[in-house]
Amino acid sequence: METTKKLKGYYKLQDKMALFFDDREQLIENCYIPLNLLNQKQVKIRKERTANNKEKQSNALEYSSEQETTDLQDIWKDTENESTVRHICIRGEAGSGKSALTQKIAYLWANNQIWGDQFQYLLRITLGNIYHIFDSNSNGNGNDDEKKREYNENMESQWSKVIHELGIPQWDRKDTHCIMHSKGSLLLLLDGFNEIANEIHKRPWLRQWLQHCTKHNNCHIIMTSRPNLMCSYLDNPKVLTVIGFESHDIPNYIHAYFQNISVKEKNDWEADLIQKLDNNSSLKTLGHIPFYLRLFCYLARQEKEREKDRKRIQKRTSANTFGNMPFSQFFGKVIESYMRWNWQKCNGTKEPPNGQMLFHAFEMEMHYLSHVAWEGLKHEKVAISCKIQQEVLHKIEAKYPCKDISVLSQWSRIHSFGFVQGQERINPSHPIESVYFPHSTLQEWLAAYYLVHCLYQPEDSDEHKQACSIVANELLTPRYTMTISYMAGILYGNIENKIDQSGSGLLYFWKQLHLSESSPYRLIPVHYLLSLMHCLEACKADTSSSFLSPELHVIHQGLIRSFQDLLVVWCTSTKHAQTRYTKTLDDLMHSHLAQFQYLLLHRDIHSCIVKQIKTVQAQMRISNNNNNNNNNENENEVIRHHLQILTSLCISSTETMELVVRSFEQMFRHWELDSCSEWQDYFLQVLAGLNQTQLHTIVQRMQDELLAKHTHEKYAGLLTGIAAHLNTAQLNIVLKWIIQTFASSNNNNNNNNNNNNNNNNNDNQHKMCLVCAHTLATVALQLKKKKTNRQ
């Protein structure tokens, strides 16, 4: 019992999740969110769904809120085979939360919340931290029989070494003896078999210690590893796979993360990040993986704290990026963060190199991943075959000889780095299964990274010619469009980071797109121009930085002027509002503008947008008056066209958002109720793009309109539509208003009945109550949902 007390005391103190770079400490009790655990049957079903996604060129990962999972409490039960489970192997991709899961198990056991009646002792051992104690120099050659016998006879001393590495206070030999002779009441949590797989053959004592743990019946084992590695010493293990978070877990994790931060704005920060993920399917899909979700929280917190320190108002309300990062830079940051995380796992507390030094440290891995990503993209493959991987590996082996990389083989180091998913078996020398990337956008970015590398190769090389051909001829090919824009961002970053100070790479890129100082920018077709705008967006729409060459300034300014002309034509095309061309242009502009940030904040574009919004507002007033007088379908089409423009343009800045919202409020107040529902959808699109500070201001302004009889129904319906975007405090405010409206309505009804007023007045009051009831039900449901998700 004394040994158990020491262990529980030790693991109760292990109450903080592993540090994530320089992030703040996260209490495991508050911040840990249960992960999805699937048994082999459930994994097979998920694989079939993922395979369907691959065939459809969809995202590689498949998450369903309806999928069956295995509860942590029940993992020792084997209902299918009705056998006794002694060993469990929990497999998962890099960053899926395996280590955090073992830490949570140890913490729950120490606090008598799990398996207390089943296991008297528990040890959590990170294998990557202890393999070095099994000295390969003195005992690893396998020829010293005397030392091998000594090792087998003195296993207790080896156990003492292992436990010494754990640093359990007041531990002594008696405690070690209890562990070794526990008679079935010991649980070993062996975390990270993949980190020692290459060491087993080099360190015989490590191998024999693992065999000792697995062969004796005195202990149960939970071992974690990557999907393509399983310890052969486990006895008929039950295999579970951890796949990360379900959809409803994502806001729960974000809530737990930001509640750990002592700032009054934390609820707004939380809501803004949830909104960002909801508005971007690529980021939300990655958010199912714990590593990426914590990275998003970390980057969002850094951004908000910088904003707070600078005491500046957030200009951007759209959710495409964190802070001031275009997508190309953001995904570069994601991959850089993955490399930092990998570095820390391999090097412990040693400070990792920064920025480009990390890319240099993992040069071979990046070359392999980017080349594989490109070959997959070129052949339109999400699942990348062994043949493609092997062809790339041959080139890597020639470029990076083993003597230069300090490991047994190039493949072992590439495999250890991870990042790609789907490879469940491993061969020590070459790939044997198809793989896929965590998300198609990461594959596109890595392919761009490879093509940029090719651009800098000699002009007569096949790689260089291939990259030039793709840029020059495939900008409008859907599968290459984003990759080419990411290339622009990477090339711009090379200038910023002084890798290519002259900017020759970016200038060469633009010339491949047939742009130069003398190009006829005003004659560029619309689809092609919008694709070029994505490339310029990746370059931060930069027309002023001193580090850009004069030639680049001229090209960027020419593109800005072309885009200005397009905006003006679009916003003033009211005479042709009913034509197919204008409707197509509306849809095209709306879809593209939602993806721009820097372009819309460029001083020339922003001033143009403000001017066009004011022009549209004036035209809207005229169209609205004409429509009220004539109810003309042509005027309705003009109104729809104007609303589409306002909805698209409001996202550029705080100023434009305020202009558009004010305009909608004025029009909404005067729209007739029977036409209001159609226009309300546009207003809801605008409101959905507000950050929490802006949304709170708008909600406050709605109070008088909600309580006023002539605007009551319209604004009650509007609040119903935006309820899903409100935080708990805002929902409670609306709930209070609805109750006040109910009370007012009931009082009026009573007065009307007492005074025997006409039936029409009573009917109007009754309608107000029905609208309130619908809004009240929606708000109450959202409050219940938020409360349930956080329990």
Uncertain residue segments? 54-61, 138-143, 312-321, 759-767
Helix content: 55-70%
Main pleated-sheet profile: 6 strands, mixed
Q: Class by helix and strand content?
A: mainly alpha
CATH topology of one domain: Rossmann fold
What is the number of beta strands?
6
Euclidean distance between termini CA atoms: 34 Å
The coarse overall form would be globular
Observed structural traits:
6 strands; 35 helices; Rossmann fold; mainly alpha; 4% strand; 791 residues; globular
3D architecture notes:
The protein has 791 residues and is mainly alpha-helical. Among the domains are: 1-55 and 79-135 and 153-243, P-loop containing nucleotide triphosphate hydrolases (Rossmann fold), CATH 3.40.50.300; 246-314; 325-477, no CATH class; 693-744 and 768-790, no CATH class. It is built from 35 helices and 6 strands. The protein has a 6-stranded mixed sheet with strand order 1-6-2-5-4-3. β4, α10 and β5 (219-225) form a beta-alpha-beta unit. α8 (155-166) crosses α9 and α26 (580-593) packs parallel to α29 (633-649).
